[in-house]
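Sat 14:20. Reprocessing the chain from the morning session after the first attempt stalled halfway. Input below, unchanged.
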Amino acid sequence: MNTVRKLPGSEKYPNAVFKRGITGTLDLYNFRKEVRDGGTAFPPTHTLTVQLLDEQHRPVYKWTLINAWCAKLTGPSLNAKGNEIAIESMEWAHDRIDIS
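Finished this time. Tokens:
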């Protein structure tokens, strides 16, 4: 009997995107610039841990991104006619994500 069997393959994960309002610090930009320019943060792979906190700031859920690197850093659109909140965004590519 001929049947189609699914086999496990390589896992694929979408990039993780983190957003926040502009805080007045250039830490994210300086980090990305150092990676781009081949500074001490190169090669740019890191292990990132993101925690979801409850109202008392206790960890509830944790995501760990393995071999992560900053793929994109985006600032606000700077539209003088608009009234949107200034948001910066950092996108991280990674090989694997663990949840605990």
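The radius of gyration is 18 Å.
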